[in-house]
Amino acid sequence: MKHVTALVQGRRSVRTFDGERLREEDLEKLSSFMAELNNPYEIPVKCRLLDASQQPLKCPVVSGTELYVGAKAKRVPHIEEAFGYSFETLVLYAQSLGIGTVWVGGTMDRAAFERAMELESEEMMPCMSPLGYPAKKMSVKESLMRKGIRADHRKPFEEIFFDGAFGVPLTPEKAGVLAQPLEMVRLAPSAVNKQPWQAVLKENAVHFYLKHTKGFVSEAAGDLQKIDMGIALCHFALTAEENGLTMQFCINDPGIPAEPDTEYIASYLLP
Ligand SMILES: Cc1cc2nc3c(=O)[nH]c(=O)nc-3n(C[C@H](O)[C@H](O)[C@H](O)COP(=O)(O)O)c2cc1C
Fold it and tell me: CA-based, 20 to 30 A from 224: which of 30, 73, 129, 265?
């Protein structure tokens, strides 16, 4: 995928669509891309297009489209981060085609979507998204919702990224070549816009952490904030790659002292 930073900066959740069906060529491109999704956990994530005019699918926050993309994966360790990474790659690709999306993990008739996905007992479908061309004007419902969760707001860089230890702010200047990949993490979408990600830059590695908020874990969707972490890793890795940085993904807790509600997720090592 090209121009990752422009795609990240240009993306916002789209819940109001213009009523047009997706053009055949866009649908084809999207379908081929869906079949090739990958993530550093190497956990397969399978996507399926769903049509609400054929099946009784309801998502009350969405208007102006009947097309959705659901995704499912096996319930294995790190499923949420892997799902977040893979599905966000699809979200950014859709953005490159001018197709709007919104991550939906809560506000849907989940049972209907899970039936349409033909979930097997060992599988889960944490989230799905509508697909369509964005309407020129947002519905009143959508703009009120955005205001309610301050969807345009993001935490400052120095509040979420740290230099060597938690509590020591990292400036973009100090982050050097990692400033842009980290900035793309900062701009990522997250459930209820909680932005639960933190990172510590130490020696030749960036260590990612999840600062948990209560109420995001369920049997059906898993931990939505771990999905947020997968999204963050996706923005970081795709931007680093586009900038020519070869970084190695690993899960190896460096043991940096952290608050009890802050969980180590994964690291990227610089060459
Ligand atoms: C894992 C996840 C789950 C989400 N679930 C919902 C949802 O159920 N309904 C909804 O309207 N938006 C949902 N969102 C969208 C967020 O509210 C949105 O990304 C956030 O407010 C930031 O706004 P932006 O995407 O426009 O930047 C979800 C986002 C993520 C990442």
Answer: 30
What is the domain-level CATH number for residue 64?
3.40.109.10
Mean pLDDT by 10 residues, the chain (271 residues): 94 97 97 97 98 95 97 98 98 98 97 97 97 96 95 97 98 97 98 98 96 95 97 98 96 97 97 82
Cα(92) to centroid of ligand 1, in Å? 14
Q: Decide: 62 in ligand 1 pocket, CB within 6 A.
A: no
Q: Is 105 in the pocket of ligand 1 (CB under 6 A)?
A: yes
* 164 plus 135 within the same structural domain: no
Name the residue range of residue 100's domain: 4-140
DSSP E strands: which ranges in 100-175? 123-124, 128-130, 161-163
Q: Residue 179 is encoded by which pair of tokens?
A: 């400033």
Residue type at 14? Answer: V
Q: Which two three-digit tokens encode residue 140? A: 């009143």
